[in-house]
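Minutes, project check-in
Item: structure for the 405-residue chain
Input as provided by the requester:
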Amino acid sequence: MPFSYLDHLECSRCAKTWEADYIRQLCDCGGPLLARYDLDAARSGWSREQLARREPSLWRYHELLPVREAANVITLGEGMTPLLPLATLGQEIGIPRLLLKDEGVIPTGTFKARGATTGVSRAHELGVRVLAMPTNGNAGGAWATYAARAGMRAVILMPEAAPVITRNECAISGASLFLVRGLINDAGAIVGQAVRERGWFDASTLKEPYRVEGKKTMGIEIVEQLGWEVPDVILYPTGGGVGIIGIYKALLELRQLGWIGERLPRLVAVQAEGCAPIVRAWREGSAESTAWQDARTVAFGINVPKALGDFLVLEAIRETGGCAIAISDERILDAQRRLAAREGCFVCPEGAATLAAAEQLRQNGWLTGDERVVLLNTGTGLKYPETVRVEVPVLDPGEALPEIV
């Protein structure tokens, strides 16, 4: 049995196919490339039962991941994050079967480690020595970390307003870090020029085919953790949208393998009111989004004015009967506080947005309350200390504690 059933690359726009064992960024038409596998061979040579004996990391699914040889895997043990019942908040908002997939406990503290382990591993296998990418912060930190482990050089550009912690993460990992006066799209333009001039590997979102393969393992894990049953709804905080694209891809692959039935979860793209291009496109019935002007939100990771893969996100939510919804910063921060105080989960603001979205969808009747609903928390709140402001009383030595209600 091969380590991977990777077969070829396919353009997500024009469906042109490409050989997988060469460095390839985008299709000639400009469309993102997606990895395709020999699922017929996988169906006859691989079974769910074999997973029971494997390590609890995302590489347990290596047959559906793009690395040919086990020796080329660059890993820090990422994957198999907990799927936690939110019993208290679920009852409070009228969704008793509410669950949280908590990516805050993964290496580097965010789900970006999933894309980094597969993307860096495959780049390493193909001989890449220098990679460059724009980022809002967490992806840069993850790719810098995994690049360091692989012995690669990483060049990272992020907006000047990116969180300090993610800047430090890149710097201490040895990356060449630059800040840009602007948004992630401005950083991406600079990366694109450098890639053309210097021949570097462009690790930008969906400009290489393999980041999405790591992200899709969130979908496989959710299904495995639920005893190979799909939930009814999955809510995902959406910026570049690679996670929701990957989850949808994973579900289609699992269905073709016969590991799940025909029914798929409804996928929900959650954005911030201050940057909601995909929500606007979904409401207008458009196939793609238009760039959002003056984008800003406390949920910095989803502050993406125009995503390269927006058409794939819109396809995923429409094909599953899902929707797209925008949440205010005020409600995002309130949800972050409630998740910490009521469930002990200190999540990132992007993850908190999914709770606020679920509550709003329950209030407007899109959710009935009978569904099994999964929220995706994409990172730890510890990376966003600026979202928490508290006034802490200071006591003198020997002073008695006041009454605590």
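Outcome recorded: The longest helix spans residues 242-257.
No further action items on this chain.
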